[in-house]
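Q: Entry one of two.
A:
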Amino acid sequence: MAKDASSTRTSITTTHDAGDAHHPFYPAFCFPASPTHFAWVKLSIADIHRLRPKDGFEGQNVYFYNNHPIQFVCLAGVIVTRDEYERRTVLNIDDSSGANIEVIILKAAVATSTTTTTLPSPATARGDYDDDDDDDDEDNIARQTLTNVTSTARSPIDTAQLRVGAVVKIKGTLSIFRATMQVVLERFWVLHETNAEVKFWNERARFLVDVLSVPWSLTPEIVEALRRRARDEETDTVSDRRRVVEKQRRLEERERKDYKRILKRWDKEERLREKEAEWITESNKRLETRLAKEKAGNHTDKTHY
């Protein structure tokens, strides 16, 4: 996106797909104006498989329906199979559109604290205690267990309701595995009533007719405005990065000055302590000398008497 925004001229490509008119593919800095890019797009499974990547958008996890950029999808169907693997759960969903799709539910390690109770041995029960026995009956053990998590935030998610035969509505991100489209689960709802499923079908059909079937079109003025905004955001990002670097530099400089000031104060206090120690040593010597003289004088007086 930054590369597109910083260039002085950005080409808008035009392609021709079978059965479609010419559709311009806008650069990534135009995506904020898209009705689909930041939306949960309701699609049938057959239409999800029709989504295609586009040259120039590699690595952005963006796929296109005509010229509409899509990264988040919403689908509804019945769970046909559920398979558990070490790092993921795989659901096979059928929505009667003529195709099935795999929905991937990721797994991640979550630390849990479990308590185990140690039963007394026969010798302990008889009262024959061994010095090597552990005095604690309970040990808290932190174990790593794998649980299903969402695709983006990696938050734990309870998938007990996702059983074979359940009708579900699923939101997720897109991925391709072995040239086949998959959905990575982010959220889900179990549809307990047929009316809920019919409502989803109606919303999906309306969005297909009103949005997806109409080519996405922007005027040159809007494209230029989006380019300027992206360039300004890039400039602001660079400025923010420079401010962070400058703030860090000032912080490090202040820490160095504080360190030097503390070290200087410590040296000064250390010299004072040395002088005090010398003064105390000299005072002790003078005191010892005086006491020795007084003791010698007292001894002479006693001898005289």
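Q: Entry two of two.
A:
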Amino acid sequence: MAPRIHIKQQQTRSQSCRLDILIVGAGLAGLGSAISCALAGHAVHILEAAQEIKEVGAGIQVLPNSSRVLQHWGLEEALTPYMTFPSVCNFIGWKGNKISHLDFHESESNYPGTWYRDFHRADLQRCLVNRALELGVRMTCNARIATVHVSDDGATATVVAADGRQWEGDLVIGADGVFGKLTEELLGRSDPPVKTGDLAYRLLLSTEEMRKDPELAPFVNHPQVNYWLGPDAHAGLLHSMMLFDLANFWQ
């Protein structure tokens, strides 16, 4: 039996050693930061711009390094019902020729206790939210942060929302995404997103409907990760429980 990853227990800190941490953004990065800081015994408050934390996104892969972290945070039991167990990752030419592959089961044996799994992004995010709340993390939605002010002595920072509300903390972590403002505050200059010329299309299909099609059914009955590579583009198929993710990236 493969060794289990150690589950970190939440530390208890005295008031003098506990930081008040503000995290801007409740995406995967913000939630992961919140869980890690809360487990270390700090007081954590997430500020999210959206009016509510909605279930959005498509398929997402969890590879050995990240699976180790999720287990360390005590999330394996909560995540298990939402896992899909792909057996292999195939790289296929756009004309159908097989280029290469990675056997996930064989690869897992090189990293004992870890795994390759597929999820729907919303399921992963929901489990992270629940774990953060279990650890005492506070969450405030509809809080779009416009700026951050650092105190004169550098001991604290105050984040200011677009509607004027303010929160003070010992540490501010920016996880507000590509359209967020905290990166610009850190750099001291404008840092708008750069258009790359790429587009991504994603589709979610019911696996029950796919099972009715003889050509699509094998993708559901024998979960695999498949990438079709072509000139200046690729398409990827991830099987994620009752959902199927098709992503096309065009340059």
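A: Comment on entry two: DSSP finds eight helices and 15 strands in the chain. The helical segments are 28-39, 64-72, 76-79, 104-108, 121-134, 182-187, 207-210, 217-221.
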